[in-house]
Write a structure and sequence with these properties.
mainly alpha; 2 domains; 6 helices; flat
Length: about 190
Amino acid sequence: MGRQRLYHTPEEKLQADRTKSKKHYGANRVRICRRSRRQYKKKVEAIRKKKLKELLEGSDDNSEIRADPLSVIADARERVNRVTKGAIYTYVDNLVLRSIELCAFRENWWRELMDAVHDALGGILQEYGCGAVYQKADLVGRDVRHVVTLVEEIHTHAVSMSPKQMEDWHSSGIFSYQICAEGANVSI
């Protein structure tokens, strides 16, 4: 004789499945959420890469040599229109604004961090004095101040120099961060 039926109706079976699913989710919620986030990030990254490839489409097939100069010009016109969406000056203006915003955002972010670290150092100094705890914390504060100085320099040059000049300075190794890294024997 076999075992007795657990579920006599489809509704009972459905309710039991729901209960099992809730129990499994409750026990494995963190793992399930992590997996979902990982899959979402992969999906978003794939979409980003696809959009970038579409934006720059054809730029990696430079090995193909075309005999007809008119097709080269037509292809170039198509690429320009695709990338700039028909508004060249708006495209360049947006590039400039984004780069300035990025530099300013990073500079402000580091300044805010520096202010928070400075306040924390004051609290540590009040509570612990100038002992070992303060000295370790002050090393972090010095690093933050150093990064702020380097980011400010890059921001200043990014606003006042042409990209070619920035590239020349970078290849020459005369930015402060490059000189500091060289002095500290750190490879970039």
